[in-house]
User: Fold this.
Amino acid sequence: MENPNFYAIIPANVRYDLRLKPNAKLLYGEITALTNRKGYCYANNSYFAELYNVSNETVSRWISDLVEFGYLKITLIYVNNTKQVAERRLFLCTPIDKKINPLLTKKSTPIDEKINTPIDKKVKDNNTLINNTDNNTKKEKTQSKNFANSPSSFEVVCLADNNIQMQKEQQYQAEVKIKISAKEKTKDGGGEFEIFCNAYPNKLGKSKSETKFAVACKKIGFDNLMLCVENYKAFVDAERKNGFPNLSYMHLSTFINGRYEDFLVNEKQTEIDNSPKYKGISLATEVNMKIAGGAQSKLDLGFVLRLAIRTPQNIHNITYNGTGISLEELPQITQLLKNTKYEN
Assistant:
């Protein structure tokens, strides 16, 4: 990823578009800063999600709005002769839409005419003849006197801009209140956030994780979130024993920002019934995995199969529910895990 430019550009039509969320406008500015010399930005949603501490889905909605309203254009670059996306390119666009800012109506037209007309005439006259110095002095005095007695066009335009800015500020304040409310609910939840942080091995990013913690609890419940922590710890322990001794835990802020869902095991989820199956067993089914000479762990079958792919040299030591895995099965397993959460 190239380093972004020092300045970000957010033009007026983006700033005053009432259809866009404030953060979508900030994202537009970030894209202008990342646009390289080729004229496009190739950063993915994960990059922006980490940058703004939001989920990939939120970034996707912002980009969709910018595309829908004509500010961005997306081009997908595919791997040769496949449907696999190699790169996404974001191009900046400039839509022309008079409906973007309803405050700039026909009433503002006379102001522009009043400002521009005398200047245009003066320029046109001076293109052909150099006026007499005395005449110029008289005209300048007359124009200055008339301008001093006329309403301040600049102040009127600024007033319209201020009205728009006030609307944006009110919308921003409303979003801040929602975030503060989420934090207060977390603090009043019987210390659940602290319990979660104490159970998670890597505390980095704790200070900016309370809001995401409240969202996760609302989505899957505190008990299920704690189960995700235990499943993740078991997964890392198993990986360390099988060829990855230096594998570290992801930051707490990264885990709570949606990655916990990779380790969610809930029999009520329809994912279990609809997920691909290996030898008649759903990839989302929890199985008893054991590595020769090690302790038994409970993991999704999909995670066990992924471990087998990553460490083929130890494949003969891995069993699930007492069943072994052979090297001949690896091509079939690789194809089965493709386009699932167990692929990477």
